Amino acid sequence: MEIETIEAVPLRRELDGTFANAQKWIDSREYCLVRIETVDGTVGWGECWGPVAGNRELIEEYVAPWLTGQRVDDVERIHDELVFKLRSSYHSFVPVSVVSGIDIALWDAYGKSVDRSVSRLLGGRYREEVRAYATGHFFRDVEEFETLQSIIADEARGHVDAGFTALKQKIGLSGHFPWGPEEDIELVRTVREAVGDEIDLMVDANHAYDIATAKRVACGIEDLDVRFFEEPVRPEIAYYSRLKEDVTVPIAGGESWAFQHEFNRVLSENAADYVQPDVTSAGGITSTERVATLADSENVQCLPHVFGSAIALAASLQVIATIPGEPMLEFDRTPNPIREDLAADPITNDGDVVRIRDRPGLGIEIDEAVLESFRADG
Ligand SMILES: [Mg+2]
Question: Per its UniProt record, what Gene3D superfamilies does this chain match (predicted)?
Answer without folding.
Answer: Enolase-like C-terminal domain, Enolase-like, N-terminal domain
